[in-house]
Amino acid sequence: MTANFSGKIAIVTGGASGIGFETASQLAKAGCHVIVADINFDKATKVAEALHTDSIGFKLDVSSEENWIDVMTCAKETFGGLDILVNCAGIGFADNFEDMPLDHWNAMISVNLTGTFLGCQKAIKLMKKSEKPCAIVNISSIAGLVGGEDIAGYSASKGGVTMLTKSVALYCAGKGYDIRCNSIHPTYVDTEMLDPIADSFDSRQVMLDGMATQVPVGRVAVPSDISSAILFLCSSEAAMITGHQMVIDGGQLVGIPAQHTI
Ligand SMILES: NC(=O)c1ccc[n+]([C@@H]2O[C@H](COP(=O)([O-])OP(=O)(O)OC[C@H]3O[C@@H](n4cnc5c(N)ncnc54)[C@H](O)[C@@H]3O)[C@@H](O)[C@H]2O)c1
């Protein structure tokens, strides 16, 4: 894809790692001024510096309203506004439902759902002043479309992101704002988020091979599979797409796997 983002201003949350890192890199390469926003400020700053553009790192805890107000002020004062927001920061815990600690539940709702809500709300206030078309992309999950017996909290938080996205899309359209809002629903992506799961396997490759058996195309996703879709949804090529849930799962949710052993 050759979309030109020259001069556009973007905030990528969770930009220090995985999908967010790849997205920040691709947006910067395409000409964006990028704010790499992450709770891990040191890593965000190193990522921004390595982009060799005017991109900057910013310490943002997405669950903090105050932090969101600060990052919007930074976007306005440093670059003049905001055109693109990618809500990518996220956390996940797998738990037996009956034993799930309340703090796991609260943390996932707070970061994954409240963080995305705050980002959309604060971004719209700035984006509606932009003279360019604006786009918000929220990273949900296939777990935001279907449940999982050991990921009830994660799934609930990501399901909330799915519905929040549709409401934000309709809100912006209804107000006549040139702001689109879409969600992305990846299957497993080989990032640091999988590290705690990998610890319970003989090796990371064994884990990835096992996960790949659930994906019809035969592999898990890599960050660039997701970032390319994010860039498309942010681009003018996607001007008529809003409130959409884009599934990137190699066919995992499409249908029932063949039972060759029957
Ligand atoms: N990796 C997967 O298998 C997978 C699958 C579906 C969806 N997702 C979603 O994709 C998104 C990106 O995940 P990833 O795989 O790149 O994970 P990752 O762990 O590589 O990156 C997540 C980033 O979010 C940051 N972060 C965590 N809490 C934060 C907070 N409170 N405020 C700001 N930043 C915070 C982390 O520091 C990290 O840099 C997440 O929303 C995740 O739920 C991941």
Question: What structural keywords apply?
Answer:
262 residues, alpha/beta, Rossmann fold, seven-stranded parallel sheet, 8 helices, 7 strands, globular, binds nicotinamide-adenine-dinucleotide
Secondary structure topology:
Layout: E1 9-13, H1 18-29, E2 33-38, H2 41-50, E3 56-59, H3 65-79, E4 84-87, H4 102-127, E5 134-139, H5 152-175, E6 179-186, H6 195-198, H7 204-212, H8 223-234, E7 245-248
Parallel strand pairs: 1-2, 1-4, 2-3, 4-5, 5-6, 6-7
Bound molecules: nicotinamide-adenine-dinucleotide.
Nicotinamide-adenine-dinucleotide is lined by residues 13-14, 16-20, 38-40, 60-63, 88-92, 111, 139, 141, 186, 188-189, 191-194.
Characterise this structure.
This protein is an alpha/beta fold and 262 residues long. The chain is 43% helix and 14% strand. It has helices at 18-29, 41-50, 65-79, 102-127, 152-175, 195-198, 204-212, 223-234; strands at residues 9-13, 33-38, 56-59, 84-87, 134-139, 179-186, 245-248. Helix 1 (18-29) links the parallel strand 1 (9-13) and strand 2. It is globular, with a radius of gyration of 18 Å. The chain starts with 8 loop residues before the first strand and ends in a 14-residue tail after the last strand. Nicotinamide-adenine-dinucleotide binds next to helix 1.
